[in-house]
Write a structure and sequence with these properties.
4 copies of one chain form a homotetramer.
Chain A (H helix, E strand, L loop, with lengths): L1 E5 L3 H10 L7 E6 L3 H10 L4 E3 L2 H6 L5 E4 L6 H11 L2 E5 L6 H14 L3 E4 L6 H11 L6 E9 L11 H4 L3 H17 L5 E9 L10 E8 L4 E7 L7 E8 L2 E6 L6 E5 L15 E3 L5 H4 L2 H14 L7 H20 L3 E2 L18 E2 L4 E8 L4 E8 L5 E8 L1
């Protein structure tokens, strides 16, 4: 497919590196940047002709079939408007909006126009995420009780991130958007997020927005999503997810501990990406673009457009994420659990609570069964009506 | 020193294994158990003569110099009373009390009697904890911003734990007592814990108490302690701590990933400790007793008695921990941040906030300095009075 | 490009999964299998029409531009002959031949015919390998002293592997071909492999060929390549490389410890790939096809054909690998270092020895410089002419 | 017990730190150093009175019951002679001798005198080693096929190590003594080591002895011990063991990856031990003394003396290790497998070969059984008389 790229910065280059690699047939044919020089350099680097500092010109370029928005957060809505007007399919980087309202307007516009709206949530396309999701759906870890996602590093690259008006927030808007959607996917997209408790603070950087936040998202089935985000982490990019289920657990390390370790005295020339240093032990990833999910993401997006189906991550997902984040912001301010306000909820309203009491026999629940270090078995039971807890020693195993 | 052991269960045996190992000179001379058979077997196993089912008889045994309380939580206070009456030094397992009030009564009794009161918080004596603490005090990671401690497994061994009246709670009273004190130690014991936000639930087991809880403890200097505890974790014993500081980070895995991995087809006979299985990949620890801190703990306790000094972990520490836990229980119930009520606070009342705004020059704060993938340097600055954020590209590095 | 696939088994499916994924434009248009049913099923699974049990028919199919050989080892040569005759480009799976002579004949045929000969050595295309190679070339770890590669699992899937006549050997021919080329690449392809010492044995399986082997390959510059291969490993697929350089080290874990860990009680349905079990801790990889190098490999191969350049791995590389393996087989038999016989060596004949003696001053070499635990510096020097070793304490650092 | 310490350097201080810790009752009462100032400082640091620069004076000190030799290798024999003469029990650091002959003389002397001779092989007392040994003896991993031990760092602290005459060799004598005994213990001390193949080189340091060596030790039952040692490793101290058995595998990381990771910007003051740097990611161990085996080692030694039994590691073990190392030196020189010459072999002469051919039924051996990715079972069989290999597909599992 023929693509217009809106933006020419860090994330636009990441996208382009992916799109123009591994013999992929899709091609960028136009780029827009507020800075014409940047646009020109981008077009040269990725070997195509058309560049412009007029957003509408790129979107309306006659060859363009699909538009990728890689702009600062405050420019997403206006960019989507241009796509809607031009009836071009649109893929928008995360977060969708700065607020739920903004996201909702974008969602509605796109749906009303009948164009394709893909939400570029790359971390829900990483190989480890996708395989975890497949395992969870296949029942490998039972019912999900808790899904935590953590993203922390030393702060973003571009100045607009540090401006709350442009970005919509700090580490929460930048990073928790990933974490919230990862947890939500593991718990189940059809399960309604009910309320959020969040702590946030500006601990290190001289900014208005938060540079550290921790939040809990309670779902209708009793499961808990947890996010931990920070722009104040030292040591590289900490990208980890954990899931607890009734039958198992999953631990994912997405970036800094992936089975690739290098020690260098620093006399060599090369610098591993995103490491704070090129001396000592560094932990590169093998293929950053693939390991961060870009390949799978663009494959799903373009395939979905061609097959006229929904992608894994839609504008609707982006809207739900903004709704959860807004609840988190309110909670941080009010110091209370804040309800998640989703006026346009499209899945089941009520979900059965996770209910796992294991029945031992007619009289008792099974609390625990175990083998002691001396090889003896033991069970702990609870009477179903009296509630009395008893312990029984079994024979040696 | 001569020791009376109160209790003969799981934890009493762990303590005894440590005390009677590695050529240590201290010796258990008496054991009390509510079950005389158990007491008898314990005395035989550890090669001493005196056993009894009368608590006071063990405490008052003429040779006994120090008493170790390894009893269910609801029996701690009465045991301490017996020690106070007998003027014998006392070491009490964790948690000190089931409530702040209970802990405070024990603390007061011991201090009024002038006997030694050691709090057996083993996880504040593990080799990794002690070396981390030394590093933090030496400034290796700067000022601590966040200290998380996680303990999760499939539930405790004895039936009384599952009875809320006897235990005082569920996973929080059993496990968060460790986590709270680990975080508090890293942040600094002299820094006042101010308030707690906690979520808890009974997700899996048929019990009244919580089997899963997550809490945030805010300290007077702005640092955050976090605890994650569960009796519903599958896969073994998950024991991890993490610390973020302004100059560095610490990651500790205390149990399941310590550089010791074994795969077994299961045809062999041995079962690795606390693993849920003896088949597949298991992750034993080298020396459970030492790695969990028992050796360092008893060395500190007995040395402290002989040197007439305070140990690292005192009854006062146990009291503060109970106060934080009680705030957590209240928060889980009220769904609000709950103040930590410590009537007997012995350190500084107010602490300077962490304040780390790096000044770049007279006009600007430094937000971020970095080297981009293309080798170019970049700084992001914020004007000290206007607040405007600007970005400046530096030469190539 | 249009591809004929020769073979329809395990490795052919792996290749096909890669070729027909991620929006790649290259397409399989014909498949050959000795078993017509298998060919038919393969064609159906990958959505194309032409299948046959006549090798020549697939190769000669009018649309076919390039042929992929995914056949048992004893059929590689005859397949290459067919490609040469049809003047179709050919990509051959590893090992190239069963012996040096067989490989040499294939190399010569292809070069004489002027067709493209790509050697499908996937493990020299993994993301971690490629980034390591880039780092080594950039000098990050200085001069390479030792490069070890290990591959071990419980044995191959198909029966022909276990037949020495068909395969050419056991674990060495199956696995050491990877290891030898990995080490050689890190040490430098232009450096001549000189001699090999190898131990091999049949420890577990009832076969003629070896199921365990360890070998050392000495290179002209003094560097050592090491391979460790086994069909008797329990626990999954052990795929690790290590490199020691004068300025640093690299550790790669390619399969079982890549930051993805899952515990399952076994009650779920899914089985993680190549794990011996679906219970307990299992260690899936995120994207097996990509992490094993297939994506990068086929991208390089097809790009190279289109750009009329050599790929990273050529038939010549396959020939050198066979020459090293043959030396290893001879060494295992003669119990002596065996010379590597490469009649057609195309790089430098002699290489400067690694020489790193650090001069301290005119009189002394520097043996070692270090800071002792007490903070004191110390240097150990060796006199350049007398050879006397002396130690000098420096001030505290 | 009362101890004389011969030597006051790096290893003597490690020993003393252990002996005078954790409430141990044994006490150093005399120290000998060739440098009187060092002896004096050592006595002061460890709080005892008697120090001397006369070796015999320390050994003969009236209170001394047991002597610990922590001297350079070339002084071990003369020190043992003094103990024998004084009829004092003796514990000697590793390696026992510089050659088999030297070790044999020490062994004979001690046995003739009827005194206790303990071999201070600490790495056969680490918690992970001991637990692995217990698992192997209990059958957890079946019969041992291969046991590898690796020790590598940037070189030793004292100048005498770098002098071949004093030390007896380079990295092999310094480090492979550990590795050889670790492998031998896992394979079984009663199994005779038969022959050795070894490569060694001086790759980096300006010394006569080797700074890098790799060796294979073949045992009478067909098992293979492997050692990898280097004084040219960059990145810290690499201490790893691996074992392959017919029913399982063991992986031990003894030092640099033990679940303790710290990142520091370097602005803090502390330096983690043996790390090459205090900046970036460092990997301290929790309790170096305990994790390296000193606590368990001295407990076993003193207990053995008091209980009049053999310790786990005896002078005889030291002698066998020297015999294996001498074979390795000869092999490196002759470039052939060199027989291990043990004139005084005290265990079984011949050992049954590992024999594990699994019978499938009367006609066939089982080569392999597996479940394919598609869920289908498959077995590979070999006919017991014809040797023909066949493959049978089983139903889906």
């Amino acid at each position: 497919m023929k693509v217009a790229m809106l933006g020419s910065g860090f994330i636009a280059r990441f996208y382009a590196d992916c799109l123009h690699s591994q013999r992929r047939p899709d091609r960028i044919v136009s780029v827009y940047s507020r800075n014409l020089e940047h646009a020109k350099r981008f077009a040269a680097d990725y070997s195509f002709d058309h560049f412009t500092d007029q957003l509408v010109e790129a979107v309306n370029h006659k060859d363009v079939e699909v538009v990728i928005i890689s702009l600062p957060n405050h420019l997403h809505e206006v960019a989507v408007q241009a796509c809607v007007k031009a009836k071009k399919h649109v893929l928008c980087t995360k977060p969708l909006g700065r607020t739920t309202e903004e996201a909702k307007r974008m969602l509605d516009m796109v749906e009303d126009a009948g164009i394709f709206g893909g939400y570029l949530e790359d971390l829900c396309y990483t190989p480890k995420f996708l395989k975890s999701l497949a395992n969870i759906k296949a029942g490998s870890i039972g019912k999900v009780l808790w899904a935590k996602s953590r993203e922390a590093h030393s702060g973003p690259h571009s100045e607009w991130f540090w401006n709350k008006e442009m970005s919509g927030g700090g580490a929460m808007i930048d990073l928790a958007c990933h974490c919230v959607q990862i947890s939500r996917s593991f718990i189940g997209k059809a399960v309604r997020p009910v309320e959020v408790m969040c702590w946030s603070a500006t601990q290190v950087h001289p900014i208005e927005a938060e540079d550290h936040a921790i939040g809990l998202v309670k779902y209708a089935n009793g499961a808990i999503g947890q996010f931990e985000v920070s722009w104040a982490f030292r040591g590289g990019m900490d990208l980890r997810d954990e899931v607890m289920g009734t039958e198992g657990s999953i631990w994912i390390n997405g970036f800094m501990r992936t089975g690739f370790e290098m020690y260098s005295s620093g006399k060599g020339g090369y610098v591993a990406e995103k490491a704070e240093t090129n001396k000592g032990w560094v932990f590169p990833v093998g293929d950053e673009v693939h390991d961060l999910g870009y390949n799978n993401m663009f494959t799903d997006m373009f395939d979905a457009i061609e097959q006229n189906r929904e992608p894994l991550e839609t504008f609707y997902d982006g809207y739900v994420v903004n709704a959860i984040l807004d609840a988190a912001f309110r909670s941080a301010e009010t110091r209370q659990w804040a309800p998640v306000q989703i006026e346009d909820w499209r899945y089941e309203e009520h979900t059965t609570e996770i209910e796992n009491y294991a029945s031992y026999n007619e009289e008792y629940y099974l609390v625990k069964e175990e083998v002691l270090p001396n090889g003896q078995g033991r069970i702990i039971l609870k009477h179903k009506t009296t509630g009395k807890v008893v312990q029984r020693d079994l024979g040696s195993k």
